[in-house]
Specification:
The protein is of the alpha+beta class and 596 residues long. It has 23 helices and 20 strands. The longest helix is centred in the C-terminal third of the chain and has 37 residues.
Length: 596
Amino acid sequence: VYAQSFSCVGSGDINIVGEDVINIANNSSDISDALDDNSSLIFESSEYNYHRANLLYIGLKNKKGNFIILPDLLYQSIDLQLFMADKENHKSIYDYKRAYVLLKKMGFELNGVDFDMLLGAYVLNPSITKNEFKMVASSFNYYKLRFDEEVYGKGVKRSIPEPSLLMEHVISKVECLYLIKNQIISSLKENDQYDLLTQIEIPLSRVLGKMEFEGIKVDLNELNLQKKDLEERINFIESEIFRLAGETFNISSPKQLGVVLFEHLGLPSSKKTKTGYSTDQSALEEVKHLHPVVEYILNYRMLTKLYQTYIIGLNEQIFADEKCHTIYEQALTQTGRLSSIEPNLQNIPIRTEQGRLIRKMFIPSNKNNCFFSADYSQIELRVLAHLANVKKLIEAFNANLDIHSQTAREIFGHDDISPEERRKAKAVNFGIVYGISSFGLSQDLSITRKEAADYIERYFETYPKIKGFLDELVEQGKKKGYVTTMFGRRRPIPELKSSNFMQRSFGERVAMNSPIQGTAADIIKIAMNRVYKRLKEEGLRSRLVLQVHDELLIETYKEEIEQVSAILEEEMKGAANLSVELEVDMHEGSSWYEAK
């Protein structure tokens, strides 16, 4: 158990703040009279990271009035426990996942949530600032609220305010939720997005809450081994840098590094900043063939970043149960993708062996369990083939051909494809999905811009429907102001109307990519809901522990491996009805590293 102790603040029967009458429920009789169907609820916590936070107050509003519920009542009132757990009792929430985890830590269930203001606002407009209730409310022209920072203070000055001020703040939130709920629902239905909220996002919020609460175990021995190894390697590389440079200096200081490389060692510099020489990744890549010290500096940066982020940083995020309890930000990205913070488990680098080794630290919580990884294969290219209705690509995918080799054959006009030609075709395949320019492709492949433009032109000659589809997306974006996924998720693109060429070009790339990436994001969300439901229905103890973009990680009881494998295959493939078959790669291992 990683929950901390909970303390209540404030008590009394009725508190009057301004014009509002706030009923403070502090005994079982009070709360029984307050409970009713179609209530709005706010769960106020002591800090943003709800895994570490205490529940301060529950704000409740319904036709009976405004109520503040003290957290200890959950332990005292059977009626309150049943109300929270009742699946048939309709509840409106702001941030269901937060509320779910806060109650779960106290040992209680939260069911019956059929509206989430945070997720509803996100579905309507993913551009809204999400981490502040007042900002979300303001987007619906509701202003009778304070910012959280006004109430709690900021940074080191943050503290829990006096009870009357905090109660007023909680009640103002729950009143807002109660009053604008129907406005949000009406807008969602008008946009044909209500199902996106109720059938995908809200069920997913519960799945993610369960995953976060359970967490993923960290092998502390492995963490310490990697810590020692990285420290030794960093120290060795540091001494080599000093030897090759002929002097000691602060390698992490761009200013000092620039002076050493471009003045003392005389390397040519093509980039300058306001404070001196540019020493970013691209600047160092340009000169790494001219002096051996540059390669060491690039390695030093890579290793120190790993060390700070995933050794020191991860160590700070491990709870008493030896697990990480990440937070999945469900209402953040404009494409619909999930992101992970505290710690970020989605950005562990996998292109280098040292980066991949970080995954060795994550192990099943039970020694008799293993990890089962299931990863969609080339899902965005499959979505593109379906949405653009490209017969050649659809047939190639459904015949289980190597799509990059197939594209290379079409582009280069012969069958005997070299590994280098396949690599180029792969870059074009994925680049097209992201609206890549000839300049971007030339940078990726280290070729001239003319060659890159030629590859793109040949690609569109091979797949003319893709060119027409992407052009149509841009036109739709200009006309409507947004583009949509297969499942009705919208991405507003005001940049398309910008007078600035760079902004407009960015908007065009977003218009091309968002329906593809967003549809893929929707599919993985649907798959998560389906997999979670099947595991539960079949009474299995195996559980979802992580989602990393197109990959799901299941902690699996060894006697359930066959069932879990079949569930992942069926539910992930069946998550969307495309003209292209969805393929899933599956691996098993005793750590996340081995399961990949």
